Amino acid sequence: LVRSHHTWSQSSMRLHVKSTPGTCVLVVLCVCHHPICDAARDQLSLRNHFSIENNTTNLKYLGFYGCDPTTQSGWASLCISRNLSVFAEAKEGGMDGMASVIWAFFRNAIPPRTGLQLRPDYEAGWASQWNSSCGADTTPCISDLAKAGTVFGVFLGDELLGAGVTVSELTTAADTVKRDWPEAVVCWNEEWAPVVQNDTYPIRASALHAVPTSIDWISLDFYRLDSTAWTTPETEYATKVYPKMNPSQRALQVPQAFGRTHDLCGPVCYVNASESGCCSHNHGVGGGQTNHSFQWWDNHSAEVATHYYEWALRDPRIIGINPWYFGDDRPDNACGS
Description:
Layout: E1 6-9, E2 14-17, H1 38-44, E3 61-65, H2 69-72, E4 78-81, H3 87-92, E5 96-100, H4 102-105, E6 106-108, E7 116-118, H5 122-132, H6 142-148, E8 151-158, H7 167-180, E9 185-190, H8 192-196, E10 217-220, H9 228-241, E11 250-253, H10 265-271, H11 294-314, E12 318-321
Parallel strand pairs: 3-4, 3-12, 4-5, 5-8, 8-9, 9-10, 10-11, 11-12
Antiparallel strand pairs: 1-2, 6-7
């Protein structure tokens, strides 16, 4: 459902949709009392049963970094979370679960390495979440959730190679999951450079030349302030990511959908767009965040969502859309909170 293809008649509460022949369009009308979700929810309201009857798309999932079944049930279809207790509620709301297991496998690196590295006891770390702690407390085990059908896979982590994890360590983590749970969908999100610019990436052990066979889904972060926010990812997925994948592997998209209103940045970055020097820690100028009005960010996020969705419809390698992010704003040291 693309904004430019519909007209809204407020007085008669009608939505007129023009669909392409051969497509099935699901129209979801949401009432939201917070402006940050106005445009994004319009553009990205998909359900797991949403189908497009043509041969160009495998788009199935909509999720967010920040799974909240209370507010996302009924319009999102993917829940990625470290909180294993959330998946039963998510399933009731039509969301399939994917357990985030980054700390089962990785830890803060020991010098001279920096960032993250594979835990020396990763087998025990994985076992504690997979099946060995069941019944020890109120937290369920992933194996029980898999049997109940509330989770179908795991999320290994975010920007692991960029944080110093080696390709060999990433492969070990994925292989360990598949050994115990062959049917699992294994997913991870990565920073741009180790994958797209792998030939020149300075940390050679973390430069990706082929997606490990035990990984099913890959996604990349790329946040910009103009049309390159969507044109560059579509081009580079095709030329630099897909050649590293086998035919059965799929990709997630990560449209940018972030901004600030809940800290001291708000009055400066959103009200007075001419002010400079604020929010520098949230991706920084040129990296997807800078000083713009709230309305500018709302419109830009909607435009990004529209173009990512159109891309997904014509690209059979895309399995889902998983924007960054959904939830409360995080503190920003540059803004004094």
